[in-house]
């Protein structure tokens, strides 16, 4: 029995160099991952909006319009973007009546990168970008046309890429002077769990998570903070149309 115990304690010594080498190989990537976690881990950051530029897509109705009202009432310089100029003008008038403040309006389709780039350049550097546009046509994938699938993916996901890519260069400028910036991506409960009949819509919203998580790693050093929002069913024109 004593011999067995002695053997147990002595035998591993032959493998110690290999064990140490393997431990070192594991330690390096784990240390890198921990370091990256310290850099990009979510932290509560208060982003002031008074006297700062808040740019909202899908801002002519629903959640976007409500956010525009709130931002204007808190003293932000607000720009809203949507496809319909008529709806934008109605939204501008409603905000003016409620707050006494004029907001800038830009008619553009988020699927058109050149159009949103022009709108962003005209609006000026953005401090808070709220990527809020969204469309959905509920139907089982087998019965849904690929044109509708592409429409949802292009507006909900590719449109988000277009807006962020257009806004990011100017957002990064002089951040140490201008203070922290924010990019908020409006997802959905269907972006957390797949829902029957929402196959294409869920896919387009699930994609926003990957975009948000990877983008945060790329822009945190520029003091730009990315958030991903999952609102429940909300009484908006888009929801009514979908039902």
Automatic annotation (TrEMBL):
Organism this protein belongs to: Carya illinoinensis (Pecan)
Entry keywords, A to Z: Membrane, Transmembrane, Transmembrane helix
Residues passing through the membrane, by range: 20-40
GO MF: 3-dehydrosphinganine reductase activity
Lineage: Eukaryota, Viridiplantae, Streptophyta, Embryophyta, Tracheophyta
The protein, known as: Uncharacterized protein
Any GO BP annotation: 3-keto-sphinganine metabolic process
One GO cellular component term noted in the UniProt record for this chain: endoplasmic reticulum membrane
Domain of life: Eukaryota
PANTHER family membership: 3-KETODIHYDROSPHINGOSINE REDUCTASE
């Amino acid at each position: 029995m004593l011999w067995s115990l002695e053997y147990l304690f002595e035998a591993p010594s032959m493998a110690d160099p290999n064990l140490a080498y393997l431990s070192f190989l594991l330690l390096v990537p784990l240390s890198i991952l921990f370091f990256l976690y310290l850099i990009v881990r979510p932290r509560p950051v208060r982003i002031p909006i008074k006297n700062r530029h808040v740019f909202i897509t899908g801002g002519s109705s629903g959640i976007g319009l409500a956010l525009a009202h709130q931002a204007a009432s808190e003293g932000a310089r607000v720009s809203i973007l949507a496809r319909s100029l008529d709806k934008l003008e109605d939204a501008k008038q409603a905000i003016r009546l409620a707050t006494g403040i004029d907001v800038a309006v830009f008619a553009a389709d988020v699927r058109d990168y050149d159009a949103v780039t022009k709108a962003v350049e005209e609006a000026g550097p953005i401090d808070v970008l709220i990527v809020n546009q969204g469309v959905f046509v509920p139907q089982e994938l087998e019965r849904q046309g690929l044109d509708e699938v592409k429409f949802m993916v292009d507006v909900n996901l590719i449109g988000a890429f277009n807006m962020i890519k257009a806004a990011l260069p100017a957002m990064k400028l002089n951040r140490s002077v201008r203070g922290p910036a924010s990019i908020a991506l409006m997802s959905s409960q269907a972006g957390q769990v797949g829902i029957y009949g929402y196959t294409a819509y869920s896919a387009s919203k699930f994609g926003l998570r990957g975009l948000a998580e990877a983008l945060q790693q790329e822009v945190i050093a520029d003091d730009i903070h990315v958030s991903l929002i999952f609102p429940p069913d909300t009484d908006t024109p888009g929801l009514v149309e979908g039902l």
